[in-house]
């Protein structure tokens, strides 16, 4: 089910923040060894997503408490590089909440909307 959510959000980001999305990914590709060089681009992308991407806005309004809990976990575990050990459960909870919101709305990724019948 998380592929559903990932695809849906990526489609929305690509549709509503294409420039920021491309600039960030170009920067990460060029700075693969030190992605911290791309903080400015990541912040631009985040601002655009928060302001313009409907799926993210729905998730943020309905799953805000879990989102805050996950962000805090990342901040607390970044330096020790223990995010995977300590935050994956919260991420699973966040994904579950987000997927529930998308299902309530009946939102589906674009590739699931086109079903071709065999003749």
Short précis:
By secondary structure, this protein is mainly α. It has helices at about 1-15, 20-30, 40-50, 55-60, 65-80, 85-105, 110-115.
Describe the fold and architecture:
- This protein has 119 residues and is mainly α.
- The chain has 2 domains: 1-52, no CATH class; 63-104, no CATH class.
- Helices cover 78% and strands 0% of the residues.
- It has 7 helices and no strands.
- The protein has helices at residues 2-16, 18-30, 39-52, 54-62, 64-78, 83-105, 110-113.
- It is globular.
- The protein starts with a helix and ends in a 6-residue tail after the last helix.
- Residues 110-119 have low confidence and may be disordered.
Quickly list its features.
119 residues, mainly alpha, disordered C terminus
What distance separates the N and C termini?
30 Å
Report the radius of gyration as a whole number of Å. Answer: 16 Å
Oligomer: single chain
Number of helices: 7
Average predicted confidence as pLDDT: 81
Largest sheet: none
- Unreliable segments of 5+ consecutive residues: 110-119
Supply the number of structural domains. Answer: 2
Q: What is the 3D form?
A: globular
Which class of secondary structure composition applies to the elements? Answer: mainly alpha
Care to count the β-strands? Answer: 0
Order of helices and strands: HHHHHHH
Q: How large a portion of the residues is in β-strands, by DSSP E?
A: under 5%
The percent of residues in helical segments reads over 70%
Protein name: IMS import disulfide relay-system CHCH-CHCH-like Cx9C domain-containing protein
Domain IMS import disulfide relay-system CHCH-CHCH-like Cx9C: 10-53
InterPro entries: CHCH_domain-containing_protein, CX9C
């Amino acid at each position: 089910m998380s592929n559903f959510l990932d695809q849906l959000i990526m489609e929305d980001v690509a549709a509503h923040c294409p420039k920021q999305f491309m600039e960030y990914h170009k920067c990460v590709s060029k700075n693969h060894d030190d992605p911290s060089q791309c903080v400015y681009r990541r912040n631009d992308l985040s601002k655009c997503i928060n302001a313009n991407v409907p799926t993210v806005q729905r998730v943020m309004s309905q799953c805000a408490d879990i989102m805050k809990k996950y962000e805090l976990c990342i901040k607390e575990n970044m330096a020790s590089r223990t995010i995977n050990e300590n935050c994956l459960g919260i991420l699973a909870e966040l994904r579950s909440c987000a997927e529930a919101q998308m299902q309530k709305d009946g939102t589906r990724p674009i590739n699931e909307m086109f079903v071709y019948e065999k003749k």
